Amino acid sequence: MMKVETERIEHKTGQRGTDEAFVKLMTLSGDALLKLLGMDAQTAATYQFRATVLKEKRLAPDIEGWSLTSEDQPRVLLEFQGYEDPYIRYRLAAKVFASCAQNGYHGPVLAGIIYTNESYRKVALPLTPFEKRSGCRFDDCFVEVVLAEFSAEQLKEIDPRLLILAPLTMQANIDPETLKSKGRGWQDEINHSFPEKSRHAAIEIMGLFAVAHFRSFNVKEIMQMLNLDPNPDWVFTRVYNDGRQEGRQEGRQEEGASILMRLLQRRFGDLPPWASEKIAKADPPSLERWTLRILDAPTLESVLADLS
Fold first, then answer.
1. What value, to the nearest 5°, has the Cα angle with vertex 133 and ends 130 and 139?
2. Cα–Cα distance measured from residue 272 to residue 301, given in angstroms and rounded to the nearest whole number
3. In Å, what is the CA distance from 272 to each residue of 282, 294, 297, 298?
4. Per-residue model confidence (pLDDT) at position 256
C-alpha cells in the first residue's frame, strides 16, 4: 500500500506556490503520479513516500519514495517544478547523491522532474559538470514530464485521480466562464474518482493548483468556482485568509502613502522622485511616523529621515 510521511513542510504566507499542493497530492494518489512517470501500476502501489523540503543546509527533494515490498525496486526522488530554475537538474542530481550517501544506499534510483510548463524545462541546463570522459554520462539521467503537454483526458487515461492536475493543463489566460464550467465538471469527476472521505481534500488540492496557475483569478473566486467550504483547517482556506490579510495591509499602505504625499506637497511643494519612491515602498508604521513629523520638521529630508 502506498504511504506518505510528512517531514517539515513549510507554509509560506501569501505565496501562490505548488509545493504544499504537490505534497498533498502524493498523500492521496502518489502511485498515480508514478504511473505518470512510466512506472507500472502494480509496482507503483507498493511505494511509501516521505515529503521533504530544502531547508537550511540540508539537501532534500520534494518527495522521496521507496518500495515496501521489494528492495530491488528503485528509490524514487521527485521534484515538482513550477518556476524557472536553470539548475534544477544539478540540484536534483546533488540531492540524489546526498540521499544515497546519507542512507548508505547504492541501488537503482528513479529521479523525476514534473514541470508545470514547457518553458521551465527549456531553461533547465543540461548536466555537464565534468570534463567528457569515456563512460561518464549525465545526460538523460532523469524522467521528465511537462503537465502542460497533457490534456485532462490523457491524465485520466493514465489514472483517473490525476484529474487533480487538470488546471495545470489549461491556458493560464482562460476566460472566467469557461473555467467555471470546467471547474464544475472537474468536481463531478473527482466525486466519481475518489472515495467520499477524500473528495474534499482532492478538490482542495485542485484548487491550490488552480490558484497557482490562474493568476488572474483571486483565491475567493477559485473557492467559489470549486464550491469549497471555508474550513479553517484547510490549507486552501489559510491561503485565502492570508491573501485577505495581505490585501488589508496593502490597502492601509496605499491610503497612508496617498495622505502623506498630499500633506508633503502642501507643505514643501512638488516632491522629488526619491521621496515619492521612498514613500511608495514604506510600511504603514513608517508612514504614520513621517506624517506626525510634518508639523515640526523644517525640511522634506528631515520628515523622511530614517531613525538610527
1. 60
2. 11
3. 16, 16, 17, 16
4. 76
**Helices 196-213 + 176-193 axis angle, to 10:** 150
Q: What is the C-alpha separation between 196 and 249, in angstroms, rounded?
A: 38
pLDDT-derived band of residue 268, with 50, 70 and 90 as boundaries? Answer: confident
Helix, coil or strand: residue 36: helix
Is the separation of the CB atoms in 78 and 95 below 8 Å? no
| Calpha distance 166→36 (Å, rounded) | 13
* Separation between Cα atoms, residue 6 and residue 1, nearest integer Å: 17
pLDDT averaged over the chain?
A: 77
- Tell whether the model's pLDDT for residue 73 goes beyond 70: yes
Give the distance from CA 40 to its chain's centroid: 27
Per-residue pLDDT, averaged over 150-176, amounts to 90
Of 108-112, 134-138, 212-216, the poorest mean pLDDT is in 134-138
- Answer yes or no: is pLDDT of 296 > 80: no
Q: What count of residues does the chain have?
A: 308
Q: Looking at the predicted structure, is the pLDDT value of residue 23 above 80?
A: no
The per-residue DSSP string of 86-135 comes to: TTHHHHHHHHHHHHHHHHT--S-EEEEEEESSHHHHHTSPP---S---TT
Whether the Cβ atoms of residue 53 and residue 62 lie closer than 8 Å to each other: yes
Angle, CA of 126, 128 and 134, to the nearest 5°: 130
Helix (H) or strand (E) holding 179: helix 176-193
- State the Cα–Cα distance between residues 154 and 231, nearest whole angstrom: 32
**pLDDT above 90 (res 145):** yes
Q: What is the pLDDT of residue 144?
A: 94
Q: Residue 224 pLDDT > 70, yes or no? A: yes
Q: Taking a C-beta distance cutoff of 8 angstroms, is the pair 237, 231 a contact?
A: yes
C-alpha cell, 35: 504511473
| Domain chopping of the chain, boundaries | 1-149, 253-303
